[in-house]
Specification:
Length: 337
């Protein structure tokens, strides 16, 4: 009896239907490969990625998307591991999109979140995907929104998006999640700065982490300080009053309170329809961002534009033209192509 021939191409390059079949089964190998496909900037992968997202879309939009941010050193990875394990104990399936800061030299990730979530990564109902930010602003990877859709199609109930924590540009994260959680630590010297403006205004909850050992009193003081500051802000459009609490991710203290706060938020926003309205706004924002990204990619991938760009850069170097005028000429050249 002859051995059955194996189609190597179908293994190395799965069809859309094969991708969908295995993603819907929750196969993390195919899910990982699908994410790699949508992150690819190769022309041959872009159309296939778009088709894959289209077939996955009817199976998406059924999770809770939670953004988690905070300055480096606040304990985001430790918190996410403790919080993720708690959610899994409640019967949830949890996907963590851990966005690593990228090297400006080789574009690779600087950190390795999988190595810092040693217990969570072993859980059958957890999926952790570290991705580099690359040149993308906002502390998120370029294809985070698309990755969310794939994870939802794979049956993950909770999507946790850990961001780099780069400051004001975290608004991009806020625009793609249902609940935005800001991690703080007491005594870091940024309390007053946070109270003034910026990211605190977007937070649905502020969690003072590392409330343990000799830092419990400081954490409580910081909690009171943030609560007073939040009451100075007007009530959010969704009628939610942001909450402040403390926790120790290291000792697994206060984690249940955080899920209770998120559950209260979901009950309120789903009852007054602001949850669905927020999702609609996110989709509109995604559309506009996608248009901008596709125009940018099309511009920079055009061979004639690339050649003309080199010419204009030489003209700028020789001070024959200003960068502003050169950009106008390049746009006109692109429109006529």
């Amino acid at each position: 009896m002859k051995n059955k021939k194996v189609n190597i191409n179908s293994i190395n390059n799965p069809s859309i239907s094969k991708f969908l079949e295995h993603i819907l089964k929750g196969n993390i190998t195919y899910l990982s490969r699908a994410i790699t496909l949508i992150e690819s900037s190769k022309t041959k992968d872009i159309d296939k990625a778009s088709e894959l997202l289209q077939v996955c879309l009817p199976h998406a939009n059924n999770s809770i998307r939670i953004g988690i941010t905070g300055v480096p050193g606040v304990g985001k990875s430790t918190f996410i591991e403790a919080f993720g394990n708690h959610l899994i104990q409640l019967g949830k399936r949890v996907a963590v999109l851990a966005i690593d800061p990228s090297s400006s030299i080789n574009k690779g990730s600087v950190l390795g979140d999988k190595t810092r979530m040693g217990t969570l990564v072993k859980e059958e109902n957890a999926f952790i995907r570290p991705s580099p930010t690359g040149d993308n602003l906002g502390g998120v990877a370029k294809k985070t929104k698309e990755t969310i859709i794939l994870c939802e199609a794979a049956g993950y109930d909770i999507i946790l998006i850990e961001t780099v924590g780069v400051g004001q540009s975290e608004t991009i994260v806020h625009s793609m999640v249902d609940f935005f959680l800001l991690l703080k630590i007491a005594g870091a010297g940024d309390e007053l700065q946070g109270i003034k403006r910026g990211i605190m205004e977007m937070a649905d909850a502020i969690v003072i982490n590392k409330a343990d050992n000799g830092n419990i009193k400081n954490a409580e003081l910081a909690k009171n300080e943030f609560e007073r500051a939040l009451h100075l802000h007007p009530l959010k459009e969704n009628e939610w009053q942001p909450k402040v609490t403390t926790c120790s991710a290291l000792y697994n203290d206060g984690i249940t309170d955080i899920w209770r706060i998120i559950s209260e938020f979901l009950s309120l926003t789903k009852a007054n329809n602001s949850f669905d309205k927020n999702r609609e706004n996110q989709n509109q924002n995604w559309l506009l961002q996608s248009i901008n990204q596709q125009l940018q990619d099309d511009f920079h991938n055009n061979k004639k534009v690339k050649k003309e760009l080199k010419n204009q850069l030489k003209n700028i170097e020789k001070q024959l033209i200003t960068p502003f005028e050169a950009s106008k000429k390049l746009i006109e050249f692109y429109k006529q192509k």
